[in-house]
């Protein structure tokens, strides 16, 4: 399968600051060198790279830095996020990036996680514990079946608004 190039990413890179363009082109080349099955697209206004239709990594240019990061939290070298978007902090020049071999290894790790069906932790929402009802409010609901039915139909956020 040939490298899938999206002309929107060409335009995105061309529209970035002069310092950012070589960084973004370099990252794009490394990503595509990792596998011919990596596709590129634009999501949330920035270049995203997908593997087997799952988000693999993304890059973005800002006024004074570039950001690059992996979608899966287990790919980060130390298991955490950087001080900026992505795992590598604010990238201002090519030298700020990890070496090419490390990026290639991280790309392989991210692809292996996708192949294994491992989902990123950040995509899992944990339900919040219900807040206690004030006794007087609970008594009022018990006394009025119509109000209790309306209350039961509220989404969790609206219930929290009343309880807090």
TrEMBL record:
Protein name per UniProt: YdhG-like domain-containing protein
SUPFAM superfamilies: YdhG-like
Organism in which the protein naturally occurs: Sphingobium fuliginis (strain ATCC 27551)
YdhG-like domain location: 21-111
């Amino acid at each position: 399968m040939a490298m899938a190039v999206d002309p929107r990413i060409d335009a995105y890179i061309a529209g970035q600051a002069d310092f950012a363009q070589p960084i973004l082109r370099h990252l794009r080349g490394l990503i595509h060198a990792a596998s011919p099955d990596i596709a590129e697209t634009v999501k949330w206004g920035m270049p995203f790279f997908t593997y087997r239709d799952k988000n693999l990594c993304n890059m973005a240019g800002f006024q004074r830095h570039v950001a690059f990061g992996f979608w899966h939290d287990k790919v980060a070298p130390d298991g955490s996020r950087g001080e900026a978007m992505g795992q590598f902090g604010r990238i201002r020049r090519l030298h700020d990036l990890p070496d090419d071999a490390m990026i290639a290894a991280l790309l392989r790790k991210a692809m292996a996680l996708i192949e294994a069906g491992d989902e990123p932790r950040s995509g899992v929402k944990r339900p919040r514990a219900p807040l206690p009802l004030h006794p007087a409010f609970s008594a009022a609901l018990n006394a009025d079946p119509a109000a209790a039915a309306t209350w039961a139909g509220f989404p969790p956020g609206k219930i929290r608004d009343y309880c807090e």
